[in-house]
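// run 5 | inverse folding | seed 20
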């Protein structure tokens, strides 16, 4: 199926971020690949900033499961867009939510990059030959016990997508400038069963509601590609 029949795009917006700038900013960012860094508040703050700086692995009392997602940046003439998927409503986990293509690391995967590319091919039919892997974001630990590596990939049109109809209801794109704008980042909380506050990010876009892990990864992307200058 051709890409134009699958994608719904939002309003375009030009940005000063081109391929070279994205490569430079990703290369210059501080890396957080040491898993001991997951004990810091930096990672945990994305889900619950007021909790003690202990690992979610300890809180969950089980080992973390490695996983990876692809953060696809589509380089269009109007500027870069971020490609996202809407999960189908009948799935047992995260039904109907907006997410990046990805999943748990399998035995045949030799790296998070291999996981992200394989899952992307399986979920949306994007051949890995169209993906230029240019870096990654901070590891993200989910409350369900996954340690997710977001792999950033540049995609240059034209390309064809064939979604897995069981998992993917829709594929769409959001202008990168919209997602980098901190005025569009919301932070909410809800009460858990034991009465504690659990914080999460949300980025509403048109009729869509991007929240949870996906929104947190996009906030991290904004921290890297649109850093706030310090005095």
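// decoded
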């Amino acid at each position: 199926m051709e890409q134009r029949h699958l994608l719904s795009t939002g309003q375009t917006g030009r940005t000063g971020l081109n391929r070279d700038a994205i490569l430079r900013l990703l290369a210059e960012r501080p890396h957080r690949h040491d898993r001991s860094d997951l004990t810091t508040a930096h990672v945990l703050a994305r889900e619950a900033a007021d909790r003690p700086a202990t690992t979610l692995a300890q809180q969950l009392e089980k080992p973390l499961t490695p996983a990876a997602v692809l953060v696809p940046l589509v380089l269009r003439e109007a500027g870069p867009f971020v490609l996202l998927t809407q999960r189908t409503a009948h799935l047992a986990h995260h039904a109907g939510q907006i997410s990046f293509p990805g999943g748990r690391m399998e035995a045949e995967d030799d790296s998070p990059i291999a996981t992200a590319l394989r899952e992307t091919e399986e979920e949306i039919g994007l051949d890995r030959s169209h993906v230029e892997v240019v870096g990654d974001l901070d590891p993200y630990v989910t409350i369900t016990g996954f340690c997710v590596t977001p792999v950033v990939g540049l995609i240059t049109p034209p390309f064809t997508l064939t979604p897995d109809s069981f998992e993917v209801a829709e594929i769409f794109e959001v202008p990168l400038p919209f997602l980098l704008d901190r005025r569009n980042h919301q932070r909410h909380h809800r009460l858990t069963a034991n009465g504690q506050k659990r914080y999460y990010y949300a980025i509403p876009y048109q009729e869509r509601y991007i929240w949870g892990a996906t929104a947190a990864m996009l906030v991290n992307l904004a921290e890297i590609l649109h850093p706030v200058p310090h005095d």
